[in-house]
Amino acid sequence: MNTGQTLLTIGALILLSISVVSTNRNSLQHGAIINQTEISLYSVSLAQAKIEEASGKAFDTYSSSDTLDAGAAITSLSQLSTTLGTEGGETYPNFDDIDDYNYFSGNNPYKFNVPGVDSFRIQTTVFYVDSANPAVAVGTRTWHKRIIVKVWPTVTPWGDANPKPDTVTMSYIYSYWCF
């Protein structure tokens, strides 16, 4: 082999090495993106499940027996709770109305098989809102309550190559209608 062929062979090996390193780097980045997407999907699912769980409860403690043949309907705002949160001795999962979820916080009891995630944290807030501006909490009782659910994973150290996932925030407006 002469000098020209040796240089061409070395150049080909360098190009092959660069190509292999680039492919490996892209493969690792693709894996991190898939992992983050999976974590986001779990977070959205947990937030939606918590909203559905809460929306299955009564609007207020005083309306928890407001069904056909079970009691009179609430007809005045003064009949609604002034305090949002649990009433005397209520503990999760035995809440009877949506405002019991105010300041609820805890780990998700289910362990997902997601690399790098220890568990998921869930935090909820409930407040009265006005129908004209449902994004802002009001200090008075209204016929509408908004629940905000935040879910985020508690993660093991990810390193610089994998940024930590974002917090998923979802909300729902729950209204009381009397006919």
Order of helices and strands: HEEEEE
Unreliable stretches: none
Task: Look at the structure and give the mean pLDDT.
Answer: 80
**What is the CA-atom radius of gyration, in angstroms?**
27 Å
Q: What is the distance, rounded to the nearest whole angstrom, between the alpha carbons of the first and last residues?
A: 95 Å
Give the assembly state of these chains: single chain
Please give a structural write-up.
By secondary structure, this protein is of the alpha+beta class. Helices cover 30% and strands 23% of the residues. It has one domain. It has one helix at residues 3-55, and strands at 105-107, 117-130, 133-137, 144-155, 168-175. Strands 1, 2, 3, 4 and 5 form a five-stranded antiparallel beta sheet that branches. Strand 2 and strand 3 (133-137) form a beta hairpin. The radius of gyration is 27 Å and the shape is rod-shaped. The model has no long low-confidence stretch (mean pLDDT 80).
